[in-house]
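Quick illustration, no need to memorize.
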Amino acid sequence: MNTHSVIRTVMIVLLAAPSAISEAGVIVDYNMDALTGSPTSVTAASSATGVTPLLMSVGDGLTPISVVGPPNYFGANGWDTDQPDDYMEFGFSVQPGYVASLTQISLSILTRPSGPKEIGLYLLTGGSGSPVPLSTISLASDTITAWSTNVSLSGISSSVRLRLMEVEPMAPSLPTGSGSLRLFNTSGTNIQVLGNVSFASVPEPAHGAVVVVGILAYLRRRHRNQRSSTALGPKENLAI
């Protein structure tokens, strides 16, 4: 391979290398509009490259309810502020070789008159640990409320579980866990987890430039040496 071919090959490889960070967008989303019957979980409608979406599901302390729309929803009853297994959950798992960052979670939510009055959004990463609070919202009964939470979290290389838990009941005088909570799409947009997904490690642009300069310098020296050897020709054996 001649000098020009080597340089061309190196440049193609560097230009074809994936960028360090993808553009911010939807990491995973869920579509409530297609739900019917009594769904026990919701499969993600789409997800970004580099992640595996998790089912939207409920904890063991809750019971999914039937869909009566439109608008359609995913809901559950049995809420109790004292029970750690009362939650609705969704999220994704980061695939090997990738890393994720979170910027926003968007959904719409409705509570019944005997359901939760205040809901908290919590984050769990990895396979264990305690839920970390991200945000809370107070709800008016029988009113669909859009809820968007900004998040600044980067360097995620494991699972991300976003969990909705009751903070305060709507009507404390009613029997514990008698009300329901329902999740909807937001103004025609699916329930979404926003952010970006990137490759875990790629050469930085500056490093790539250094590699190119080094290769070019080596090839120039080699080319000059070859020309010098050709100009001098083979050495003759001289008798002493």
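The chain has two domains: 3-15+203-232, 22-199.
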